[in-house]
């Protein structure tokens, strides 16, 4: 008789931060996988203030318990491990984690990080197989002007070389988009046939249409103004400067911009917001469960990515915020790049134009009325209604079906309506 599959979803490059898109991605997928398997999520660190955000049907582990337990709201992947000595020390920690848990799990998923594949390779040395889950090829995009940046570049190249080496030894790589698969083949020399493309899901129970007037009343937002909303990080990848510059130049009437989130560029955006006559409201970080209420209060949601910050100017990852906006029946304004062009239909479910001050000024000079935006929001909702984390989880299992064998004692998990072996995976 088949027993339930046992899965470890490990994120060696990420601490658990409940407001982080990466954490939400991992926990949402893990909760969906738990319908077919016993799932453990292993973050690099588990700050005590964040543990309550985990789904009740998954188990949490810390790969590196020595990392501080108090939350600072920063995800490790973006800020830690640059020092080569720190890397070497952490490699030993990761290897030790794999050795201690060898034989405990039937399947290991490793969330991509600077040295993608290292943890899975350590598990494979003890007979446990799995897949690397990639959302970024981590290509260098910064100018190299001085000794410090050249040293960082050298470390980056070393890490990228190691990631390519270890990833090529993984039996399966799961990429979020077709563009990312092409980039992994190009920059890491991973055989294309090893890479399955599985898009992210949407939590349809949380991100769903809600009453706009009620949401505005609860948040103290004007009931009759056109509200534009941005939710997310404030960094080089998400550039609000052109939005704010275009807003100042066009000076549209009866419009407000609301910003939910935080990041290193917040002070810069706050200064630009103070230079415009149009109200710009910064809400800071809010609990993940409250985000849909802010989306419900909006008329149009923003995803102003900076194409120049990405390798070859192409957004290769699967954006989480756009389908969540759309699932709440809100149109989205973003740039025409990568998967975004397949998500948003221009002037039907949102708007696609370059993220430049000139383009935004032109948009603000002819903003559609609220009724037209609401109709576009309904079209946006229809375009993502079929997305779910359950489908994503089944596709992950389907991509790994050759690794899930009765000989390993795990059996093949059978879903309530669909077996992962019956799924068509894009190779």
What does this structure look like?
- The chain is an alpha/beta fold and 427 residues long.
- The chain has helices spanning 21-33, 76-79, 84-101, 118-124, 147-168, 178-188, 212-219, 241-250, 266-274, 291-297, 321-327, 340-343, 357-364, 370-384, 389-399, and strands at residues 5-11, 37-43, 58-62, 107-111, 130-134, 172-175, 195-197, 226-231, 255-260, 280-284, 300-303, 332-334, 350-352.
- It has two domains: 5-201 and 388-422, Glycogen Phosphorylase B (Rossmann fold, 3-Layer(aba) Sandwich), CATH 3.40.50.2000; 212-384, Glycogen Phosphorylase B (Rossmann fold, 3-Layer(aba) Sandwich), CATH 3.40.50.2000.
- 36% of the residues lie in helices and 15% in strands.
- It has a seven-stranded parallel beta sheet with strand order 3-2-1-4-5-6-7, with helices on both faces. It has a six-stranded parallel beta sheet with strand order 10-9-8-11-12-13.
- Helix 6 (178-188) links the parallel strand 6 (172-175) and strand 7.
- The radius of gyration is 22 Å and the shape is globular.
- It starts with a strand and ends in a 28-residue tail after the last helix.
């Amino acid at each position: 008789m088949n027993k339930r599959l046992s899965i470890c979803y490990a994120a060696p490059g990420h601490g658990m931060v409940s407001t982080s898109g990466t954490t939400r991605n991992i926990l949402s997928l893990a909760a969906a996988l738990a319908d077919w398997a016993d799932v453990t999520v292993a973050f690099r660190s588990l700050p005590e203030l964040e543990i309550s955000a985990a789904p009740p049907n998954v188990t949490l582990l810390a790969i590196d318990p020595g990392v501080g337990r108090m939350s600072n709201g920063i995800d490790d992947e973006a800020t830690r491990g640059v020092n080569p000595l720190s890397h070497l020390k952490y490699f030993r920690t990761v290897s030790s984690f794999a050795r201690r848990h060898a034989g405990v799990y039937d399947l290991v998923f490793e969330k991509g990080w600077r040295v993608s594949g290292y943890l899975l390779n350590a598990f494979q040395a003890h007979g446990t197989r799995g897949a690397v889950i990639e959302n970024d090829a981590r290509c260098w995009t910064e100018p190299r002007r001085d000794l410090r940046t050249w040293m960082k570049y050298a470390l980056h190249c070393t890490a990228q070389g190691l990631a390519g080496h270890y990833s090529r030894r993984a039996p399966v790589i799961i990429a979020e988009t077709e563009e990312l698969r092409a980039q992994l083949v190009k920059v890491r020399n991973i055989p294309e046939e090893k890479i399955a493309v599985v898009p992210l899901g949407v939590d349809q129970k949380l991100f769903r249409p809600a009453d706009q007037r009620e949401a505005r009343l609860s948040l103290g937002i004007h009931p009759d103004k056109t509200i534009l909303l941005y939710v997310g990080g404030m960094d080089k990848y998400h550039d609000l400067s052109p939005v704010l510059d275009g807003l100042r130049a066009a000076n549209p009437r009866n419009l407000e911009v609301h910003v939910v989130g935080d990041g290193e560029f917040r002070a810069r955006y706050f200064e630009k917001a103070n230079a415009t006559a149009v109200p710009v409201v910064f809400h800071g970080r809010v609990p993940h469960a409250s985000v849909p209420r802010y989306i419900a209060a909006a008329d149009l949601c923003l995803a102003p990515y900076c194409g120049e910050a990405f390798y070859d100017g192409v957004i290769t990852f699967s954006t989480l915020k756009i389908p969540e906006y759309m699932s709440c029946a809100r149109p989205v304004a973003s740039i025409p790049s990568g998967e975004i062009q397949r998500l948003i239909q221009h002037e039907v479910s949102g708007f696609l134009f370059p993220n430049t001050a000139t383009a935004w000024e032109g948009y603000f000079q002819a903003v559609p009325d609220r009724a037209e935006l609401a109709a576009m929001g309904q079209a946006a909702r229809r375009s993502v209604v079929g997305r779910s984390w359950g489908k994503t989880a089944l596709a992950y299992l389907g991509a790994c079906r050759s690794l899930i064998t009765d000989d390993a004692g795990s059996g093949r998990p059978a879903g309530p309506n669909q077996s992962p072996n019956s799924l068509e995976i894009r190779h």
